[in-house]
Amino acid sequence: MNDMSKLSPDQMVSTARFETTRWVDDLNAALAAKDALAASSLFATTSFWRDLIAFTWNLKTVENPEGIADMLTATLPHLDAVHFTIAQEPTEADGIITAWLSLETGHGRGEAVVRLREGKAWTFLTTLVELKGHEEHSGPTRIMGAEHGVVRGRKSWPERKADEAATLGITEQPYVLIIGGGQGGIALGARMRQLGVSHIVIDSHDRPGDQWRGRYKSLCLHDPVWYDHLPYLDFPKNWPVFAPKDKIGDWLEMYTKVMEVNYWSKTLACKAAFDEEAGHWSVTVIRDGKEITLHPTQLVLATGMSGKPNIPRIPGAETFLGEQHHSSKHPGPDAYAGKKVVVIGANNSAHDICAALWEAGADVTMVQRSSTHILRSDTMTEEVLGDLYSERALANGVTTRMADLTFASIPYKVMPEFHIPLYERIQRKDAAFYDALRKAGFMLDFGADGSGLFLKYLRRGSGYYIDVGASDLVIDGSIKLKSGVEIDCITQTGVRFADGSELPADLIVYATGYGSMNGWAADLISQDVADKVGKVWGLGSDTPKDPGPWEGEERNMWKPTQQQNLWFHGGNLHQSRHYSLYLALQLKARMEGIPTPVYGLQQVHHLS
Amino acid sequence: MNDMSKLSPDQMVSTARFETTRWVDDLNAALAAKDALAASSLFATTSFWRDLIAFTWNLKTVENPEGIADMLTATLPHLDAVHFTIAQEPTEADGIITAWLSLETGHGRGEAVVRLREGKAWTFLTTLVELKGHEEHSGPTRIMGAEHGVVRGRKSWPERKADEAATLGITEQPYVLIIGGGQGGIALGARMRQLGVSHIVIDSHDRPGDQWRGRYKSLCLHDPVWYDHLPYLDFPKNWPVFAPKDKIGDWLEMYTKVMEVNYWSKTLACKAAFDEEAGHWSVTVIRDGKEITLHPTQLVLATGMSGKPNIPRIPGAETFLGEQHHSSKHPGPDAYAGKKVVVIGANNSAHDICAALWEAGADVTMVQRSSTHILRSDTMTEEVLGDLYSERALANGVTTRMADLTFASIPYKVMPEFHIPLYERIQRKDAAFYDALRKAGFMLDFGADGSGLFLKYLRRGSGYYIDVGASDLVIDGSIKLKSGVEIDCITQTGVRFADGSELPADLIVYATGYGSMNGWAADLISQDVADKVGKVWGLGSDTPKDPGPWEGEERNMWKPTQQQNLWFHGGNLHQSRHYSLYLALQLKARMEGIPTPVYGLQQVHHLS
């Protein structure tokens, strides 16, 4: 490298490019020869191939040469003309070469990221981005809109829209029914429209965005704007870093409209059953008071990765004379000034609700039952997301798509390796803050293995608070803390603890989280189907609330499940944006009759 | 250049950069010395300095060293610390060096474009982009949104919005009242919000976007998407090239909401008067049936550059037994299948309406009273706009802002030099099309001097059709044409011509254009004020409908008028985007009490 750096850029072929070229050439040759063993020999003893539907028609991470050989042995017979090319100048750091590749197969095009160590692949991400013959119309290929020329009887845009509204779900059946019109359902709906897949998104609220508007008053996004873009339409440059909930609600509402998502508001899904013979679902919905039965081929549950509200059974709760509700039903603090409130739970919602109640003049106590991971929002924005999702990243040429792929290119099993040192640094940086929290009696953790926020989110979707100010109120005692003592029972007037102490309460808020998403399937379809697909979310990390065995990917999310034609979609805005692409392509391929042989359909190890 | 091209890029200082550096250094020195003569000597004998509020607090083009010296003599005493720097590598073509400069003054920052010929400036554009101390919060300086930390009594975003809605115009007066909530009013409203200028946009329609929705069914934008972006938020990449009117309506509605424009729908402006002593306007409006008097300091008429509908007085019109209406009131073709329709006029609306009527099965005749400029839409998109506003331009690195500045950098007086050869080429390219039109009896022109569409638009805002298909119907006789014969009168049953022929009609559509925008001022304020500000729009080109003397800029648009605190805003989407910036900064500066001495306030030569 040192000698070569004296050459002009044109004359220099970097070691990184040389090594990458050799590896890519070898891989292309092995794939062309359909030689799974030869291909797998290009991977290190410890290695990971994460495929997002390009090879496996699944979201699948296989490990080590054996796992890779198994995957290729199964998939190569179906794959033609697989070819990788180097898309950007490879880079080298700390002995690891990172290279961005383009991927073409017989049926589509995609992107890939490989990390090479001593000439062999350590991590490999492959993604499908478009299907040949079904490319999205965008940029240079955008539709004309006005059809130039004049044709008798032609319908105008609003007439075609009105026709679609009058027939879809009534005389014409949608190919896809998406239940849940939050960010996930809307993002997927936009992709369905763009890919020409007939679809309906149903949601019980009055308007798109009400999922956010209806939450507690002080709620703002805890993730910064750069992480939150929806497909096709970025937030504008004058958008705040952390948008207030109602502003996000307005954005989702307008996005639904301008993306021409077929969105049925005020529509409740009552009952669904899959007709194996007919190959479609029967879904009974009540739209604006009227019962309609839909027959979509594919059914997507986008009802929130959080699943159904979880309220613990506490003895005596039924005798409580005050008000009690789950955090998802909390109306905000205004009615509780001067009242005594006990909030059970110590994660995100608990903190936000306690802070808003304190702001409004309530006497509020947080009951912490187990330790919580706390990460200061500024620290997260700067230290955790800053390299990928920030103005700094944009200035460095890291687009949202590149950031998404970079993030996706780190296999879940390896992610702790990247995150543990990061959180060690964060603990040093924010040591005074964490010490003060501990001094206040707050039970802290940084995840079972010290890997922090994202891993906790990916493993269990809970157990943390991104601090936007409430922790200071816990530290200074404004929010009272009851920690480390078991709840004994609820009395007529409050909460009694195992140590005999009692907290009087006018209101009890259960900020006690949510169940698995297959709870929705149990309610809507049947317990049998819910059990057949099993637990949704989590990696099988064998850490609290995420039992093993290791799955390699999020359980049941954005990929085929054990129930034919049933899909789960959701997650935060980042996931709704990124993974909706792969889910959309899986649905589109099926609609078009493109063969989609699934490799490694997940086995069910847990029912919920 | 030839010798230098052998050097590496680092070692080479191009002639273009060398010449530009010398010119910029000389200009900076002259401006620092407040030496108007020295500065003007850097300009060629025939030369143009177009200033968009950076020097003149006006939109002003001055000509030749004498004009430039006059402008600088008047403005330099008020200007401090003016300094230009080269912003991009200058380029040279055909003996002209083009250089992009950054501009800083004591009170703001801006951009500039200079064209040098033989060491002297031929054209010079200077623009102000932001006021120091009042920079917009965008990208790296965007607001946080969530205020981290918890503050008792703090109001949430929807509470602050509700407070503003409850007080603005009632107990608090807006600084700016914008009458007319089409694209112009909305774009300016978005800039007002972003600059922190209290404002209300009023509009008589039910919803933002209804200005488009209410027009004839087949209407699509005639300008392509790349030309049409609004401030802050580009159309997404999946947006059609030529959007249908209702889709644009939906976009404007959502844009109004997400940009948090204070928009009063269903509100009619009845009467306005300027109180010189108080320094503000009294404007009576009826909002949703209720009369309210507003007292804005600044009043902006954004009621459409087209002004009020113009219906010619034709003898006998009052005796006609069928239906007759102006094109702006035309409901679309659906009710007229099988009916006989006469459309008087041969410009954009006439063509679109005739085509839609023919599509719907009406028997339709277009009455052409004078020659029309026709430009095929594909040709316009490719030949006229393609270098600046297209996927090709974007691929070449030409951003929308660069395109706007490039377009603005060509002084109106020079523009025909650029456009006449272009339209000569277009006439050759589309010769068969134009020949067929002439053969059908259609009277064609390419503008008084052959300079084509844009000059016609800038001079008179009318006299053309961007062909999206109707011309073929004229050519093949589907749309019947009556051309070159004077209308004698309207009878009870149709239209009679000077040659004695008569056209029976069930419907007469007057596609006869619009008056000057100061007609709105006459209705709303007084004829005196309308006469005081004079004609709006046009350059003084001494061509049909644009009488001399030469003005150098659009009359009264986006700049101070003879009526204190009265402004006109409008134009197509491109102009609404670009010029709303300069109008917004003029309003913001006045609100902040920043001195804004206006150089060269325009004189009034025509009343309408």
From TrEMBL, chains A, B:
The keyword Transferase does not apply. The keyword Oxidoreductase applies. It comes from the Bacteria. SUPFAM superfamilies: FAD/NAD(P)-binding domain, NTF2-like. Residues 176-402 form the FAD/NAD(P)-binding domain. Pfam families: Pyr_redox_2 (PF07992). Keywords: Oxidoreductase. PANTHER family: FLAVIN-BINDING MONOOXYGENASE-LIKE PROTEIN (AFU_ORTHOLOGUE AFUA_4G09220) (PTHR43539:SF68). This is NAD(P)/FAD-dependent oxidoreductase. It comes from Novosphingobium pituita.
